[in-house]
Specification:
The protein contains 14 helices and nine strands. The longest helix has 19 residues, at 192-210. The strands form three sheets. Strands 4-3-5-6 form a four-stranded parallel sheet. Strands 7-8-9 form a three-stranded parallel sheet. By secondary structure, it is an alpha/beta fold.
């Protein structure tokens, strides 16, 4: 590994600022000394930052998953810098927040800049992530690493996973405003009553169009997990059919416990909401699906092409989701 990477770098006329070096399952099977591998490369190429990346899914049964470890390693290159009270940094997600997302509107309303990892175009942009006076994470898989990086940078950390629950959104936005107030008082939030009224209007209109057509969801669609979306939409009288899950996050487990009450911890690891088997017919092919897994299993051509929430967040995220479902339906 050391000599192979060295050979590649020596062939380059212009050296990169950073190298993402992935160790794999084989390195672990052989008991490779990873510290020596990275240490030797750092000594040979002191001007290059070597990110300790992982592609070892066989190791994910114990401790952090490869995805979690990778998202942590990605930000090792962010240096400690003086905090800018008028700047907030968001890390851990693969997508920038939509401009109309609640977080973006709140920050803009208070004259605060938002730096986001996926928006970085240069090495300097990437290193400037360290200027944020507050570190945000909206994607569950990023929480493990981003929280550790916030501690390293000496910044307060706030976990704001996406939600479709009005009260939870309001609570999360309250936490955000409280932390912003610590740096400079008098921060202004959104008009919650207006936001909820607009959500109700948008969802009511979507329900009029979609009607009783079943909606199928898979776990990749929503940031927090589609159980939250499914529970919320059932309250809005949308008709849901079978759901497709690969795994269940702690947030979703909590929702299941609240809804079902009888599930044990072990059962929740493999639990899927019961679906209407008779609905899995040719009629499925006209169903609007949230994400491609659900579309594949049902044979639907109509689906919302989105993963990890796609940058949607808050009350605006609810409205945008309804609009995307309408587009898929039509």
């Amino acid at each position: 590994t050391i000599e192979g990477v060295t050979d590649i770098l020596n062939r380059l006329d212009e050296k990169p600022k950073a190298v993402l070096l992935f160790t794999v399952c084989l390195h672990h099977f052989l008991g490779s000394d990873l510290d020596r591998i990275y240490g030797e490369l750092e000594e040979r190429f002191p001007e290059i930052f070597f990110m300790r990346c992982f592609m070892d899914p066989v190791m994910q049964k114990t401790g952090p998953t490869p995805d979690q470890k990778l998202r942590r390693a990605m930000y090792d290159a962010v240096p400690e810098r003086e905090a800018d009270p008028e700047c907030v940094t968001a890390m851990g997600s693969d997508f920038v927040l939509d401009e109309s997302a609640d977080i973006c509107r709140i920050l803009k309303k208070n004259g605060i800049r938002l730096r986001e990892a996926p928006a970085c175009k240069t090495w300097e942009d990437y290193q400037s992530l360290g200027e944020g006076s507050l570190i945000l994470n909206c994607y569950p898989a990023g929480k493990f690493g981003v929280q550790q990086q916030a501690e390293r940078l000496g910044r307060p950390f706030l976990y704001l996973p996406g939600s479709f629950d009005y009260e939870e959104i309001e609570t999360q936005e309250k936490y955000l405003l409280e932390l912003l107030d610590q740096h400079s008082g008098g921060k202004n939030g959104l008009d919650i009553e207006t936001e909820i009224r607009k959500c109700e209007e948008t969802l009511s209109y979507a329900h009029q169009i979609i009607g009783d057509t079943p909606i199928v969801v898979d776990y990749l669609f929503s940031i927090q997990g589609h159980w939250d979306l499914q529970s919320f939409s059932l309250l809005m009288d949308f008709r849901y059919s079978p759901s497709f899950w690969d795994s269940i996050s702690p947030e979703v487990k909590r929702s299941i416990f609240l809804a079902e009450g009888e599930l044990s911890e072990a059962e929740a690891d493999f639990y899927c909401p019961p679906g209407d088997e008779s609905a899995a017919t040719a009629a499925f092919r006209k169903n609007p699906c949230c994400r491609t897994k659900a579309a594949w299993f049902t044979g639907s051509r109509n689906f919302v092409n989105m993963v990890q929430g796609g940058g949607l967040w808050g009350f605006d995220g609810i409205r945008r989701t309804a609009q995307l479902m309408l587009e898929a339906f039509e």
